[in-house]
């Protein structure tokens, strides 16, 4: 996922990853690889920001049913996603991380990649 981004050929002041991570297959530790592939595309001082839908959030029966159906169909892959794992995945690649719960979702920002060239 986002394995070869070398062809992009430029960097960005900000990169948005909104409502994406909960769709990527695997555990949050696997999704950290995608975060790591985005980190080198930021300019110095840049920010990776986004939102996602972890499963360790309060949700009503309708949302729970939607979660279950979407995971069964492969639309979502977030049954193992939680806020702590999201925070850990971001901190694996960034020095400044903020993760906040927002209703049934989570928002995040990450700055200062650990491997700035
Ligand atoms: C809910 S949409 C969000 C789109 C956009 N970020 C927005 O906020 O409008 C989820 C996005 O994740 C992408 N996506 C799902 N699985 C993916 C994967 N395995 N690798 C890369 N992108 C994926 C889909 O193509 C889709 O664009």
Question: How would you concisely characterize the structure shown here?
Answer:
The chain is built from 3 helices and 4 strands; from the N terminus they run E-H-E-H-H-E-E. It has 117 residues and is α+β, with helices and mostly antiparallel strands.
Beginning-to-end CA distance, first to last residue: 22 Å
The major pleated sheet works out as: 4 strands, mixed
Bound molecules: S-adenosylmethionine
Trace the largest sheet across and list its strands.
1-2-4-3
pLDDT averaged over residues: 93
User: Structural class of the helices, strands and pairings?
Assistant: alpha+beta
Shape: globular
| Rg measurement, Å | 14 Å
Q: In percent, how much strand structure appears in the residues?
A: 25-35%
**Discrete helix count:** 3
Order of helices and strands: EHEHHEE
Helix content class: 25-40%
How many individual β-strands? 4
Low-confidence spans: none
Explain the layout of strands and helices.
Blueprint: E1 12-18, H1 28-38, E2 42-52, H2 61-73, H3 83-91, E3 94-102, E4 105-113
Parallel strand pairs: 1-2
Antiparallel strand pairs: 2-4, 3-4
Describe what this molecule looks like in 3D:
- Helices cover about 30% and strands about 30% of the residues.
- With about 120 residues, the chain is α+β, with helices and mostly antiparallel strands.
- The radius of gyration is 14 Å and the shape is globular.
- The protein has a four-stranded mixed beta sheet, covered by helices on one side.
- The protein has helices spanning about 30-40, 60-75, 85-90; strands spanning about 10-20, 40-50, 95-100, 105-115.
- It has one domain (about 30-115).
- The model has no long low-confidence stretch (mean pLDDT about 95).
- The structure holds S-adenosylmethionine.
- The site of S-adenosylmethionine has 6 residues, from loops.
């Amino acid at each position: 996922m986002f394995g070869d981004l070398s062809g992009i050929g430029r960097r960005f002041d900000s990169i948005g990853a909104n409502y994406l991570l909960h769709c990527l297959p695997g555990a949050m530790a696997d999704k950290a690889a995608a975060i790591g592939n985005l980190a080198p595309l930021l300019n110095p001082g840049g920010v990776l920001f986004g939102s996602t839908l972890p499963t360790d959030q309060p949700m009503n029966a309708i949302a729970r049913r939607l979660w279950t159906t979407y995971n069964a169909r492969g639309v979502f892959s977030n049954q193992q996603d939680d806020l702590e794992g999201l925070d850990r995945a971001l901190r694996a690649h960034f020095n400044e991380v903020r993760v906040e719960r927002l209703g049934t979702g989570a928002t995040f920002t990450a700055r200062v990649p650990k491997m700035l060239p």
